Amino acid sequence: MEFRGVMGGIYRLSEWIMRLAGSNLLWVICSSPFLFFLVMRFIFGQSGFTANDILQANWGMGIMAPFTLFPATAALFTVVRKWVMGEGDVSVFKTYFRGYKENYKQSMLGGFFYTLLFVIMYVDYTVYMTQFPNLQLLGIVMLIFLLVLFVSLFNFFAMIAHYHMKLKDIVKNAILLSIVRPFRLFSTLLGTVALLFIGTKYPVLFVFFLASGIAWFAFFNFYGMFLKMQEQSEKQALADEEKELKADEQLVIGDQSPVEQAKQINVEKQPTSMNDNVKKSLTKNKER
C-alpha cells in the first residue's frame, strides 16, 4: 500500500529515521570496544584521575581502533553509499554486515596506518606546543596536517565502499584528494564539526543518528566530487580525441611532407598535475 500526501511524507520520514537509527546502532555495537575506551578517556580527563589512567585509555583506543572502529565505519559507508546512489530500499542489516565482511581486512590494515600516523602527529603537535615555545609554528603545521589526515579518513572509507582498489592506492588517493580539493575538504570538515557539536548537545543523537548522519554527508560530498571528476575526464577524453582526428587530417591533406607536418603539430606534453593523477586513478578503477 502506497501512502500519498501528508501521510506519505510522514511514512517516508519515519522510514528514513529507522534506516539512520538502525545503521547507527549497528555501528555503535560493532565499534563498542573502541567507544568504551573513548568514554573512559573523557571520564579520566576530569579531575581526580592520574596521567597514567589517561595514558591507559589512549592505549586502549589506539589498539581497538583498527580492529573495531575502522571495519565498523567502512561497513557504515557501504550502507550510506546505497542511499546516496538511490538504492534506499536495501536491507540495512544485510548490507552492513556484507560490507563489514568484505572490507574488514582492508579497513583494519588501513586502520593501523592511520592510527600510527595520528599518534605520531599528535605527539609531535603536543611536544611542539608545550615543550618548545619557539617551535610552536611547527605545532600549528602539525595541527593542519592532522586536520587534513582527519578529513582524508572520510575519503578512505568512501573509497573502500565504492571501489575495487588496492589498499595503498586507496590511502594515497584519499590523502591526495583531500589536498587537491580544498573546498571539499573544508565543507566536509565544517559539516562534520557541526554534526559533532549537535551530537554533544543532544547525546541521544549520538546513539541513533550521529555516525550515520556524518557518514551520509561525507559520502554525499565524495560522490558529488567523483561525478564531477568523471565528467571532466570524459570531456578531456573527447577533446583529446578531436585533437588527434584533426592532427590526422592535417597529415593526410597537408602540402608539407609528413615529417614536417608532424613537427609542426606536435605539442610537447605538459607534466600531469597531482589533481590529474588522482582524477585518472579514481575514474579508471572499477566501482563496486
From TrEMBL:
Q: InterPro entries recorded for this chain?
A: DUF624 (IPR006938)
Q: What are the alphabetically sorted keywords of the record?
A: Membrane, Transmembrane, Transmembrane helix
> What are the Polar residues biased-composition ranges?
263-276
Which residue ranges does UniProt annotate as crossing the membrane? 21-43, 63-84, 104-123, 135-163, 175-198, 204-226
User: Which residues lie within the region annotated Disordered?
Assistant: 251-288
Q: Name one Pfam family in it.
A: DUF624
Q: What is the name listed in the Swiss-Prot or TrEMBL entry for this protein?
A: Membrane protein YesL
Q: Which organism is it from?
A: Paenibacillus nuruki
